[in-house]
Amino acid sequence: MQGLLDHVSRTPQLWNMLRWLVEAGFRGEHRVIAQELRPFADQQRRFLDFGCGTGQFAADFPPDRYVGMDLTRPYVQYAGAHRQGSYSVMDGSALGLSDQSFDAALVLGVIHHLPDTLVRASVVELHRVLKLGATLLVIEDVPPPSIWNVPGHLMHWLDRGDHIRTDADYRALFAPHFEVQRSYHMRSGVCDYGVYLLARQS
Q1: Does residue 176 have a cis bond before it (omega within 30 degrees)?
Q2: DSSP string over the chain
Q3: How many domains does the chain have?
Q4: Contact at 8 Å (CB) between 59 and 84?
Q5: Residue 139, phi then psi, degrees to nearest 5
Q6: Which of 120, 128, 152, 166 has the most Cβ atoms closer than 10 angstroms to its Cβ?
Q7: CATH number for 11
């Protein structure tokens, strides 16, 4: 089974289809991005999609003010060929981006793939490239709160991310560079997420 998942994850079209089915068309994620970041509310703000993968959420942002980065080259190549916006292959712990050059950033389903040391390094980099007072929206996998969400538990068992954390663990990784202004639970298809709206600290 793991071999099959590895094959699917290396094929952007298959990976997109699997995620779209499991997460009910990403309706929950689209709603949260629109509600919390309001990307089309003005014509000045620049947005960073940290760990953009195949650019699944690029259309939620103005293409001329959207930058997607990911470490996986095939995903970035797919995104560049099929989505609007600007894309780069980058290591999240050493971003090739200017200081304080973004007004907001999205981190969606990335942190649970990284050990604590890499998360902390990435948080430092996000702090560096975001402007003072900028908004960081983190949407991360959390353990399903209901034992009856059997498909959700199965997805976590199959998930290639080995670092699904508790709410307290996520909050500890954000500090001291970001302050959690608001957080809540969200269900997207069978997947349970913690949503964190954070503000960059000085």
Answers
A1: yes
A2: -HHHHHHHHTSHHHHHHHHHHHTGGGHHHHHHHHHHH-TTS-SS--EEEET-TTTTTGGGS-GGGEEEEES-HHHHHHHHHHSSSEEEE--TTS--S-TT-EEEEEEES-GGGS-HHHHHHHHHHHHHHEEEEEEEEEEEE---S-TT-HHHHHHHHH-S------HHHHHHHHTTTEEEEEEEEEEETTEEEEEEEEEE--
A3: 1
A4: yes
A5: -125, 110
A6: 152
A7: 3.40.50.150
Q: For residue 195, what are the CA distances in angstroms to 17, 32, 82?
A: 23, 8, 27
Q: CB under 8 Å to 140, separation ≥6 — which residues?
A: 107, 108, 109, 110, 111, 112, 165, 170, 193, 194, 196
**pLDDT by 10s per residue, the chain, length 202:** 445 445 455 677 777 787 788 788 999 999 999 999 999 999 999 999 999 999 999 999 999 999 999 999 999 999 999 999 999 999 999 999 999 999 999 999 999 999 999 999 999 999 999 999 999 999 998 876 666 555 554 555 555 557 889 999 999 999 999 999 999 999 888 788 999 999 998 8
Q: What is the pTM of this model?
A: 0.88
